Amino acid sequence: MTPATLLLKGGTLIDGTGAPRRSADLLMAAGRIAAVGAVEAPKEATVVDCAGLVVSPGFIDSHSHSDLQVMENRPEKIRQGVTTEVVGNCGFSPYPARADRKALHEFANGIFRGGDGWGWSNAADYLSEAERRTRLASVVSLAGHGTLRIAAAGPKLGALSEHEMDTMEGCLEDALTGGAAGFSTGLMYAPGSSAPSAELERCCRVVARHGKTYATHIRGYSFHLEEAIQEQLDLARKSSCRLQISHFQTVGRMNWDRQQHALELIERAREEGIDVEFDCYPYVAGSTVATQLLPQWTLDGGMEALLARLADSTQHETIASETVAGLPHRWEDIVISAVGSSQNEWVVGHNVQEIAEMRSKKPVEALIDLIGEEEGAVNIISFNQSEDNLRQSLCHALSSVISDGFYVHGRPHPRLYGTFPRLLGTVCREKKWMPLEQAIHKITAKPAERFHIGGRGVLKEGFAADVVVFDPDTVDSPATYENPELYPQGIHAVWRNGAAVWTSGVLEKVLQ
Ligand SMILES: [Zn+2]
Question: Whole-angstrom Cα distance, residue 461 to residue 470?
Answer without folding.
Answer: 21
